Amino acid sequence: MDHRELLGDAIKEECGVVGVYTPGEDVANTTFFSLFALQHRGQESAGIAVSDGEKVRMHKDMGLVNQVFTPEVLATLKGDMAVGHNRYSTTGASVLRNAQPVFCQSLVGEIAVAHNGNLINAVDLREKMTAEGEHFDTTSDSEVLARIIVKNMHNGPVEAVREVMRLCKGAFSVVVLTPNMLLGFRDPYGIRPLCVGKLGEKGYLISSESCAFGPVGGKFECDLKPGEIAIVNREGLTIEHGVDSPREAMCLFEFIYFARPDSRMFGTGLYGARLRMGERLAAEHPVEADIVVPVPDSGIPAALGYSKATGIPFREGMTKSRYIHRTFIQPDQRMREIGVRMKLTPLEDHLKGKRVILVDDSIVRGTTTKQLVKMLFESGALEVHVRITAPPIVYPCFYGIDMASKGELAAAKMTIPELTEYIGCTSLGYLSVEGAQQAVDGSTEGFCTACFTGKYPLPIPVGLQKHAFDDPPHVGEIATVSAGQGQLFES
Questions:
Q1: Distance (Å, rounded) from C-alpha 206 to C-alpha 368?
Q2: Cα 227 vs. chain centroid, distance in angstroms?
Q3: What is the mean pLDDT of residues 38-66?
Q4: How many whole angstroms separate alpha carbon 488 and alpha carbon 326?
Q5: In what helix (H) or strand (E) does residue 451 lie, and over which residues does it extend?
Q6: Measured between alpha carbons, how far is residue 219 from residues 173, 184, 441 in Å?
Q7: With contact defined as beta carbons under 8 Å apart, do 113 and 119 qualify?
Q8: What are the E-state strand segments in 120-227?
Q9: How far is CA 216 from CA 15, 47, 203, 213, in A?
Q10: By three-state DSSP, how is residue 22 classified?
C-alpha cells in the first residue's frame, strides 16, 4: 500500500481493466497475472469473467487479486476469452455488489462489463431507464453503462457499444465480454487510458496500461484513440471508429502519479516522462542543497531528473518496507503516524547535517508531506526543500479519481507560503502545469488538467456539486460536485 494511505492522504484511481483472448487455451491464469500487474489501480475488489464460446462464468470478491483468486478458483474458470477488473471504491461503496465485472443477460447471451472511469450523467440515465422499467442490482454507474449495452444488443455488440458512447458522458475506458467476442472502447475524450497488445501468434490483450502485457509475454501494439472500439473474435483484431472525438483530453495525473513507471502512454514511457518532470522542476525551482532525496517509490524518477539537471547528488534518505498492508491502518492519528514511520524509515547517516531536497509526486491534504518533513528534520537534516511534480491540486475530479473535496485539498485552502509553514519545510515548489505537460511529449495539447486548472473538458452537471465544494464557488469558478466516482446512488 502507498504510505499516503496510512494518513488518509492518498489519491485513489478507480480501477484497472483487462481483456484477454488466446484461441484454444484457458486464459484465467493469464488474466490473473495481468490483473496482478494492474493491482496499483485498485485494491478493494477483483473479478474475472471467462467465456468458453457458449457460457460466461465469473468470480469476484473483495480483496487483492491474489486473495480473491486461488488456484482452485482459477481452475473453475474455463475459456479462452476473458475480462478482468480491479476496483478502488470511494467511502461507502466498498461492497461486493459493486465489485466488477458487471454481469448481465442479453439477447446474445451472458455478457460481462468492466469499466474504468466515471459517468457524469449516470443519475439522469438511470432515472430514465428505471422509468422505462429497467431494474438495477448495484449502486454503481458502471451498471448503467452495462445495461445500455444489453438494451441495444439487438443491433449487435458493436452498435450497442456505439450507443453507450453516444449516450454516456464522462470518462469510460471499458472492456466487454460476450460469449464469442471481446470489445474495448474509450470515451470520445480519451480521459482514461486503454491500450491493445499482441499475445503469441493469434492472441490479444486489452488493458488500462501496457505494464499488464509483459508479465504474460504480451507485446504493446497501440493505444486506443478516443472514441475507438477494439473488436477481438475468432477472426482476430479489428479497430473501428465508434464516435467522433471533439478533442483528446487524457488525464495528466496518469503520467504524474497513477500509471506504473514501466507503462507506455501517449507515445511515451512513463519513467522517462517522470525523469523529465524532475528536470523541469529543477529549472523552475532551483535551490542550493547537498542531496536530492526521493519519497520512495513514487518520487524516484523525478528525483533522478532533478539531480541530473542540477548536479546535486541523488541519495536515498529513507527506506521503504513492503510488508505493511491495509490491515495495519488504525483510526487513531498517532497510530497512523507510527504506520508511516514503519513504512518509511529514515537513513540518518545520509540526512544528518545536510540540506535536503525532498522530491515527491503530489500533495493532497498535506498530512503525509508534513509527517515526512518532520521525520527528516528529526533525523538531522539542516534544511528540507520540498519539490512536487504535480501542480497544485485545487479542484475535485469527476472523471474516475477518488479525490478529496475542494475543502480538503491543501492547495485550495492555503497559499504557497501558508502551505510551506503548515508542512514545516524550508521551501516548497510545485511543477507548473505547462512544465508537466511538456515533460510528457513536448507539447501542452491533448491533456485533461481540470484538477489543476478547473477547466473541465466536459461540462459538469450542477446536480453533482454538493460534495465537491465545501464553500460557495467564487465568481467565474465552475460550480461542480463529486459524483462519488462510481458510488452515485444511495444503498
A1: 35
A2: 19
A3: 94
A4: 25
A5: helix 450-453
A6: 20, 17, 22
A7: no
A8: 170-178, 181-186, 195-199, 203-207, 218-223
A9: 20, 18, 11, 6
A10: coil
Give the residue carrying C-alpha cell 465552475: 478
Dihedral of the CA atoms 95, 96, 99, 103 (nearest 10)?
-140
Predicted confidence (pLDDT) at residue 159 exceeds the cutoff of 90: yes
Residue with cell 428505471: 130
Which range among 3-7, 179-183, 293-297 shows the weakest confidence by mean pLDDT? Answer: 3-7
Q: Is the Cα torsion angle 93, 97, 99, 105 positive or negative in sign? A: negative
Grouping H, G, I as helix, E, B as strand and the rest as coil, residue 230 is strand
Q: What distance in Å separates the CA atoms of residue 314 and residue 308, rounded to the nearest whole number?
A: 8
Name the one residue in this structure whose C-alpha cell is 524516484.
300
Q: What is the tens place of the pLDDT at every residue in 242-270? A: 999 999 999 999 999 989 999 999 889 99
Tell me the pLDDT tens digit for each residue of 62-112.
Answer: 999 999 999 999 999 999 999 999 987 543 355 787 889 999 988 878 999
Q: Sheet harboring 427-430: ordered strands across? A: 291-294, 355-360, 383-388, 427-430
Ordered by where they begin, the domains of the chain are 3-248 (3.60.20.10), 272-444 (3.40.50.2020)
Report the SS3 class of residue 263: coil
Q: Is-contact 71 114, C-beta < 8 A?
A: no
The answer to whether 448 is a known catalytic residue is no
Residue 13 and residue 89: Cα distance in Å, rounded?
A: 9
Instruction: Judge whether 262 and 211 are in contact, CB under 8 Å.
Output: yes
CA dihedral 466, 468, 474, 478 (to 10 degrees): -100
Catalytic pick among 15, 195, 425, 448: 15
Please report how many Cα atoms fall inside a 13 Å half-sphere around the Cα of residue 252, on the Cβ side: 33
- CA dist 334 and 364 (Å) reads 20
Per-residue confidence (pLDDT) for residue 324, from 0 to 100: 55
Residues contacting residue 55 through CB under 8 Å, at least 6 positions apart = 109, 110, 179
Mean pLDDT, to the nearest integer, of 47-57?
95
CA distance 404 to 365: 8
Distance of alpha carbon 452 from alpha carbon 391, whole angstroms: 6
Q: Which residues have CB under 8 Å from 329's CB, separation 6+?
A: 5, 6, 336, 339
pLDDT in tens, 201-245: 999 999 999 999 999 999 999 999 999 999 999 999 999 999 999
pTM comes to 0.88
